[in-house]
Amino acid sequence: MPILSVNVDHVATLRQQRLGKEPDPVTAAHIAELAGAQGIIMHLREDRRHIQDRDVDRIAESVKTRFNFEMAATDEMRDIALKANPHIICLVPEKREELTTEGGLAVAGREAEIKDYIAPLHDAGIESSLFIEASKEQIEASAKTGCEYIEIHTGHYADAEDKAERGAELGRILDGIKLAQDLGLKVNLGHGLDYRNILAFAEVPGIMEYSIGYAIMARAIFTGLDEAVSRMADLIAGFVD
Ligand code: PXP
């Protein structure tokens, strides 16, 4: 069954507005787990704009499901990952000026470098995923790095301005899923997914994880986090395996 992993970065973004203690992303993670999330995601950015190092330590200690640690491929982040020991890391590109992770990781041409980068994580029993665009080039390159998973960037599909563009982006993602699976990669999806646009994947077999933050937190402001997570978890529970 595909799982729902809830990204709690947006809770930390709100907390950092006042540099205080509330709302606490770790409490959000615990509530999300109680409401049916089967994984928790945190992205510790190099500029620490939302999640802080202590949040990672606290989640690593207390997560009851699956901890997916998003990070840039730097030495500092790998040391933190080795200490936190998440179930899986997801490598993402980072640009300081971006509002959120905008594009996928450039893997093509860097296969050997990425393979070397993730090797110590694999040795420590931590799985790895690469957040990439649904392009043949990036998927084929990812398959050469030794990563178990890719997370296909669904942001362009989510942001499409009309039906034709949405259909084209969806087609690209569906082709990408198939290619990745044929190459032996496990496929996660994430970025910009919400309660409506996710339904396009309901009949697509073999998706392992949906990584969702913004839509859940936006809904939670009005309906509560428990309702927002359980609604999404229930939707995904009806998807094909
Ligand atoms: N996957 C990755 C790699 C991301 O960077 C993000 C955004 O933090 C997400 C998934 C979740 O995206 P959203 O917050 O739009 O649901």
Relevant terms:
single chain, 241 residues, alpha/beta, 8 strands, binds pyridoxine-5'-phosphate
In brief:
The protein has 241 residues and is an alpha/beta fold.
Q: How would you describe this structure to a colleague?
A:
- The structure is a single chain.
- By secondary structure, the chain is of the alpha/beta class.
- It is 45% helix and 17% strand.
- It has helices spanning 9-18, 25-35, 53-62, 75-84, 111-123, 136-142, 155-159, 163-182, 214-223, 225-237; strands at 3-7, 39-43, 67-71, 88-91, 127-132, 149-153, 186-190, 207-212.
- It is globular.
- The structure holds pyridoxine-5'-phosphate (PXP).
- Residues 7, 9, 43, 70, 90, 92, 100-101, 131, 151, 190-193, 211-215 line the site of pyridoxine-5'-phosphate.
Distinct helical segment count: 10
Radius of gyration: 17 Å
Bound molecules: pyridoxine-5'-phosphate
Order of helices and strands: EHHEHEHEHEHEHHEEHH
Strand content is 15-25%
Topology, element by element:
Blueprint: E1 3-7, H1 9-18, H2 25-35, E2 39-43, H3 53-62, E3 67-71, H4 75-84, E4 88-91, H5 111-123, E5 127-132, H6 136-142, E6 149-153, H7 155-159, H8 163-182, E7 186-190, E8 207-212, H9 214-223, H10 225-237
Parallel strand pairs: 1-2, 1-8, 2-3, 3-4, 4-5, 5-6, 6-7, 7-8
Helix pairs in contact: 2-3, 2-10, 9-10
Bound molecules: pyridoxine-5'-phosphate (PXP).
Pyridoxine-5'-phosphate (PXP) binds at residues 7, 9, 43, 70, 90, 92, 100-101, 131, 151, 190-193, 211-215.
